[in-house]
Amino acid sequence: MNIIESSREKERISLHSHISGLGLDADGFVTDFLFEEKIKKRDMYIESTNKIENNDIKNGTILDSDKRENICNSYKFENNGNYENNKISYNNISDDEDEVVKNFYKCKGMVGQKKAREAAGIFINLIKEKNICKCLLLAGPSGSGKTAIAIAISKEISDESIPFCIFNASQVYSCEVKKTEILTQYIRKSIGVKIKEIKEVFEGEVIQIEPFYDNTYEEQKISYVHITLKTLKEQKKIKIHSSIYDNLLKEKIQEKDIIYIESHSGNVKRVGKCSLYQDMFDIETDTFVDLPKGNVHKKKNIIQNITLYDLDVSNVQPKDNILDFLQNNKYKKTEITDKLRNEINKIVYKYVDQGIAQIIPGVLFIDEVHMLDIECFTYLNRTLESNLAPVVILATNRGICNIKGTNIISAHGIPVDLLDRIIIVKTMLYNKEEILQVLKLRCKFERIKIDSEALDYLSDIGIKCSLRYAIQLLTPAKILSKKKGKKKIDKNIIEIVSSIFFDTKRSTELLLNDKNKYMY
């Protein structure tokens, strides 16, 4: 896994772009930062130095100050704060960047939320075992990493056949279709269908493409094309129709490419470039595959991963004149009827019974789920109990509040009958140590130089206000430090920036104090 660094100084990296998984070990536990081990090492060092010092004093010798300083530097640790037992201050201790990066690799970009990540790891096992009708709720305060855990779950699945669909509950709004129709579309986008077919194909490396023109008309038209394909066993020249040649042009087929052409439909698929030419360039972005074995004309098992929504759209949209269709329906959302969906379900079930297809329940992540109203919750409740239902992950930052569209008060703004079917995972606010690590990683990726005192002060701001606010202060502080000619961001720069840009709490206090000066 490569470290994500911005190529330009002005470019800002997405907050969740660095996440590559939950950071769990083989047993499903969190691979966390090694703070406890460092504290134990430091405690052992303090005890050993005290013993040595006492013994040296008894023997009439005293440790050299330079030697003691070198020993202290070798046992620096990352927890800023006061050590109460020995009453020694460890503020403003510098941090080793290599160790921060090493911990980043181990934790896959995740910091804190140990219990929530371990619970998510167990939930991933349910997904991989193809258990359907399971629902997970990530509940916690704003900025506690709910979306980050959901994205980490999608990275941990790492299976292209399992669809993962993300949408915000506020998107369930349209003047043209029903709210339940939008929910249904996202649910069917999250249910995959793996179709296995045995097709007759012509497969091999493209050696030559030779078009032949028809001169009977005023304009030259391609009547047929000779294409030469090569495998490890043989080389064969085949004659194809001009319409298949159009498919070759669409796929941008060139010589040295590995392709296959379906004999019945004429569909052309480019697999990649032949691996024999891999050493032609020092840097190459293409995919290299081995030269096919056997004959050019063969029977091949072809696996297609699609979703139920893809099948719905392919059957509801006309195929006669696609340009007219796009022009007429450019700004119109199409509603798919239940009758059509039932027919598609029957066909899918028929293929499943015949062993041609396999239904794969995917994952649907609904963020800000409290924005759904009572009708959507009722529909979602019924859908989770059906045979065709994905694994659903919900996220909310609400406590006890009204269900949208009603006067009913419920936990997390979700009806009680749906809460009974949900596994709830709580996410907690980050402590100072975790906020400090997040800020260090953010400074590392955005190439921001900041001293330890300013970083400690910024972590205090993250506890008092929010982690998002503390992260947002980094870029203005970097710009201000450059204007003042400073190489690093110091505490004074952070104080100036925080006084200019208000957080939510200070802005609310200002509005309450000066409420008479505002119109409403």
TrEMBL record:
InterPro entries: AAA+_ATPase, NA-bd_OB-fold, P-loop_NTPase, RuvB-like, RuvB-like_C, RuvBL1/2_DNA/RNA_bd_dom, TIP49_P-loop. Its EC number is 3.6.4.12. Keywords: ATP-binding, Helicase, Hydrolase, Nucleotide-binding, Nucleus, Transcription, Transcription regulation. Gene3D superfamilies: 1.10.8.60, P-loop containing nucleotide triphosphate hydrolases, RuvB-like helicase, domain II. It is found in: Nucleus. The keyword Ribosomal protein does not apply. SUPFAM superfamilies: Nucleic acid-binding proteins (SSF50249), P-loop containing nucleoside triphosphate hydrolases (SSF52540). One of its GO terms (molecular function) is ATP hydrolysis activity. Pfam families: TIP49, TIP49_C. Residues 132-429 form the AAA+ ATPase domain. One of its GO terms (cellular component) is nucleus. It catalyses: ATP + H2O = ADP + phosphate + H(+). It is an enzyme of class 3 (hydrolase). Belongs to the RuvB family. This is RuvB-like helicase. It comes from Plasmodium gaboni. The lineage of its organism: Eukaryota, Sar, Alveolata, Apicomplexa, Aconoidasida.
